[in-house]
Amino acid sequence: MKPILVINDDKALLDEMVSVLVEGKFKYIAARSAKDxxxxxxxxxxxLVVLDLKLPDIDGDELYEKIILAESHYDVPVAALxxxxxxxxxxxxxxxxxRGKITLLTKPLKKEWLVDLFEHYGEKx
Length: 125
Hints:
This protein is of the alpha/beta class. It has helices at about 10-25, 35-40, 60-70, 85-95, 110-120; strands spanning about 5, 30, 50, 80, 100-105. It is built from 5 helices and 5 strands, in the order E-H-E-H-E-H-E-H-E-H. Helix 1 (about 10-25) packs across helix 5. The longest helix is centred in the N-terminal third of the chain and has 13 residues, at about 10-25. It is globular, with a radius of gyration of 13 Å. The model has no long low-confidence stretch (mean pLDDT about 85).
C-alpha cells in the first residue's frame, strides 16, 4: 500500500484535499503539521507527498528531507502548494527541485488539478 500524504496547516484546504481523496477512493494519510506528519508516517512508502511549503513548525523542504531520510531507500514525487512564490517559497522550491519530480500547485486549488494529480499518482482502496 502506497498512500498519498497530504500536509497542510490550513484546515479548510486540508479538508478540501481529503474530500477529493475520499471521493476518488484513494489511499491517503493527512497531517496538519510537520510533527503530525513525522509521527504518523513512519514505515510508509508514499506514491506522492502534497506539501505546504510554509508550515508553522518547519519549512516544506526540511520536512520532505526528514520523510525521505526516515525511509532512505526511495524518493517520492512532491506537489508543492504555493501562495505567491515569494522569495521564501522560491528558496524552498529550489531546494526540492534536485530531489526529483515536483509539481507546483497555486492556491486557491482547483478540484480538477487535484483529481488529475491523484489519478496519476494514487492507489485506490
